Amino acid sequence: MALAVALFAACTGSNKSTTTDSSSVTTVKTDSTTLNEVVDTSMSDSTFAMKAAVGGMAEVAMGKMAAGKTKNAQIKDFANMMVMDHGKANDELMGIAKKKNMTLPSGPDAAHQAKMDSLSKLSGTDFDKAYVAAMVDGHQKTLALLNKEAQNGKDADLKGFAAKTAPVVQHHLDKINSIQSSIK
Known about the structure:
The protein has helices spanning 2-12, 45-69, 73-99, 110-120, 124-152, 156-183, and strands at residues 15-19, 23-29, 34-40. It is mainly alpha-helical. The radius of gyration is 19 Å and the shape is globular.
């Protein structure tokens, strides 16, 4: 239903959104009907930590794969940056989780594993383009996740981690967007 409302609103161009502490109310007005959709924008700190941990581990694993597979120097440098920066962030997140007695996953989830399996079967420019596209998509999602936690998180340590990590991920996104433009 939320998707249908959003798509309809995009088509009609008459969408108004207001935000409260934990939810967003989107009002879509048509010629004869007004639809109100309440969308929960809250996310528990533990959900954030789980998603950030899974994504971070996948970035490191895909970075290692790309560093070994690509012949493109820009992509190789980016992949090595992923291993270093996301490895560091993963260690920091694991430290916060340990301090709070939170158990985080020890490996990527099924979606990230499927993406890695798909990438592993590619080579040459096919691999490069697919890896870069995956990095653009992944960093857009990660940045949104971090910004959401930085703005709405309840746990000060996780909120601080998100706020500190978001600019690094924004830098990664800017870099991979630049790389994507250069390999088309």
